[in-house]
Amino acid sequence: MDFKAAHTRHVLVWITPAYQPRLAGIARYAKENGWHLTILDRIARRPVGWSGDGALVTMRDNPEQIAFVKSLIRRKMPVVDLTYNHPEIGVPRVSGDHEAIGRIARAYFEARNYRNFAWFSTTWQNVHKLRCDGFAGQDGSGPSVRPVARWVLSEEAPPDRLDDFGWFDKWLGAKLKAAPKPLALLAYDDADAARALEASVAAKVSVPEEVAILGIGGDRLICESQIVPLSSVEHDQGRTGY
């Protein structure tokens, strides 16, 4: 195969985290349509001197990335955002329905007769808010349900303590111990669900008998390798990537 003839579009991919199903969806589309992909892997700063035909990004609170996207917009270069953290920046987006994800989690717990609910995430951006609002019934889809306790590490403690696992387990474990039981906890994603599970185990809070934990994303590597296997709301990132 003639590489130059087959790959007619040079597309930058700045996707974090590098979740494999989403990247696999992008790769499948690229192969079918003759794209050459430049993958920025763990790069936090804007690529200097890059030129091409367009970019696929996940815009987060990274000033370098946001400035780079705005520079592409000024150059009228196609940019597609695969998340929904910066709706104020006017680019096309392909994203899951995050409020619907929250509603699905709520219905899952209610079908199992849970009445005490909590949300947990280690950070807080627009996508976190959308999922939490859907979980709490505050997304405009109907009357609000019982209030959801919201534990967000970055709002209640210094963010730099996140990597202090001993401190973190005591912090979250104390909240889980004090919460009404049985408790249904939705985490922002499977990684946050695993952190909540570790804190529960350290605090001798039984899972799922006292605290049932649900993640988001369906990451089998995370969900199936825990002390207690985690359930998760599927988020078809392979399809959104494609």
Describe the 3D structure.
The protein has 242 residues and is α/β, with parallel strands linked by helices. It has helices at 3-6, 20-33, 63-74, 98-110, 126-136, 153-156, 165-178, 190-202, 220-223, 237-241, and strands spanning 9-14, 35-39, 54-57, 79-81, 116-121, 149-152, 183-187, 211-216, 231-233. The protein has a five-stranded parallel β-sheet with strand order 6-5-7-8-9, sandwiched between helices. A four-stranded parallel β-sheet has the order 2-1-3-4, with helices on both faces. It is elongated, with a radius of gyration of 20 Å. It starts with a helix and ends with a helix.
What's this entry about, in short?
The radius of gyration is 20 Å and the shape is elongated. By secondary structure, it is α/β, with parallel strands linked by helices.
How many beta-strand elements? 9
String of helices and strands: HEHEEHEHEHEHHEHEHEH
Q: Would you tell me the structural class of the helices and strands?
A: alpha/beta
Q: Indicate the low-confidence ranges by residue numbers.
A: 1-7
Supply the number of helical segments: 10
Strand order of the largest sheet: 6-5-7-8-9
Q: How far apart, in Å, are the first and last alpha carbons? A: 23 Å
Q: What is the chains' assembly state? A: single chain
Helix content: 25-40%
**Rg from Cα:** 20 Å
What is the residue-averaged pLDDT? 88
The main β sheet shows up as: 5 strands, parallel
- SS strand fraction: 15-25%
Using the alpha-carbon principal axes, give the shape: elongated
